[in-house]
Amino acid sequence: MNLPLRTLFFEDLSVGMTETMEKTVSSSDVVGFAQLTGDRNPIHLSEHFAAKTSFRTRIAHGLYTASLISAVLGTRLPGPGAIYISQTLNFRAPVKIGDTVTVAVTVAELIPERSRARLTCTCSVGGEVVLDGEALVKVPGEAKGKRPVMKL
Predict the structure, then answer these.
(1) Less crowded by CB within 10 Å, the N or C end of the chain?
(2) Taking Cα atoms as reference points, which of 14, 135, 2 lies closest to residue 73?
(3) How far apart are CA 44 and CA 92, in angstroms?
(4) CATH number of the domain that 62 lies in?
(5) Which backbone phi and psi does 130 adopt, to 5 degrees?
(6) Helix (H) or strand (E) holding 70
């Protein structure tokens, strides 16, 4: 899932611009997220426990799925230098181990006086929306000086 970095300034953005990425969720992703966050809810980690729930199998953390939006914002649209202001999240359906999540981020509104962009964000699995919401980000402007571009 290593997206190549793309640096966009506020002036490069236009309403309707969209960036997508796909990520197949692995067991090690979910275990690693649990280790990083401390969220060891057995619905995420124990197949035995999860089998007794309405989901019948382990599911990824909702915020793991949401973090895939952050990956798009921080690497592609708008990219390095963008600063998260806020994010709304609506969890619509579970993401299971082995699911391929498609993340789409679209510029919905540009606020030039504050160098901010409002972005619609959706995560879907097999065409079904599993998470949606909006992000507000501050985007550096080209006139304010070049931001550093990292080469990885």
Answers:
(1) C
(2) 135
(3) 17
(4) 3.10.129.10
(5) -105, -20
(6) helix 62-75
CA dist 69 and 55 (Å) reads: 24
Instruction: Give the pLDDT band (50/70/90) at residue 3.
Output: confident
Find residue 121's DSSP bridge partners: 105, 133
In a domain, 149, yes or no: no
Q: What are phi and psi of 22, to 5 degrees?
A: -125, 145
90 contacts 132 by C-beta, under 8 angstroms: yes
Structural domain total, the chain: 1
Q: Is residue 4 part of a domain?
A: no
Residue 60 structural domain: 10-144
pLDDT at position 30: 96
CA 116 vs. chain centroid, Å, equals 18
- Residue 143 is predicted with a pLDDT of 64
Which position has the token pair 């359906």?
93
pLDDT tens sequence across 34-88: 999 999 999 999 999 999 999 999 999 999 999 999 999 999 999 999 999 999 9
Q: Where are the beta strands (DSSP E) in 9-127?
A: 18-24, 83-87, 90-91, 100-111, 116-125
Per cent of the chain over pLDDT 90 is 88
